[in-house]
Amino acid sequence: MNDDQPPEDIPRRNGELVFDAPWESRAFGLAAAYLEASGQDWEAFRTQLMAAIADLPDTTPYYEAWVVALDRLLATDGLAARS
Amino acid sequence: MSETHGHHPKPKTPTEQRVEAIEALLVERGLITSDVVDAIVETYERDVGPMNGARVVARAWADPEYRARLLDDGTRAVGELGFGGAEGEHLVVLENTEDVHNVVVCTLCSCYPWPVLGLPPQWYKSSAYRSRMVREPRAVLDEFGTSVADDVELRVWDSSAEVRYMVLPLAPDDVTDRSEDELAGLVTRDHMIGVVR
Predict the structure, then answer these.
(1) Residues B167 and B79 in one domain
(2) Largest alpha-carbon pair distance within chain A?
């Protein structure tokens, strides 16, 4: 599909790979690690994700909405990443 | 990074740069380490997935008492098999019967029972699936190659803030002749979402 596709031989006990590119898995892992570190549950993130999906065009790739949601959560918590 | 081999590395997209900036910030603040992120990703890529749910379904098919406990309190019953954690705190198991077929969607985002099914497939998160499964479920199921007879009641369940759903598919006719391992091998992710009957 594109250059970011992982090689065929990656173990996939899930039946299919759940991430299309390394940055997607990174974005997932960062959200999980941050929630754990900040003592919040997924509900805090999910609220931002729903809002991001609603705000962005329907054609926005899912993990792009995910990154917007993570950015907004961090901003809410007073952590603004430099661009 | 050198271009002397004729490779032109694709420039990073703004989103990729954003992800890197977020990681750098969180590491710099001492909130996370990159190793922790690696471990989380590896867990969800390799250890958590529909093979867990398949074990649950096989046990429910083989053991009527377990099945009753599973339908009564999904979270607790999957916990008996060692499955639990984020997005599995309020698991409700929906039983398919000859007269009822259940199918699961999350209309607002991508809610999904991670401990038993892993992370959702791409199509589950698409706006097409999210909107159409509610509006025209039989047409969507048809596209998955699943036809549900007109006299079978179709129930579409929208994952809410709290509840995560998993479908308990119909057992095969020869269920008593098979081992639990064999039974687990028959169950797919799509059965447990309900897009396959």
Answers:
(1) yes
(2) 41
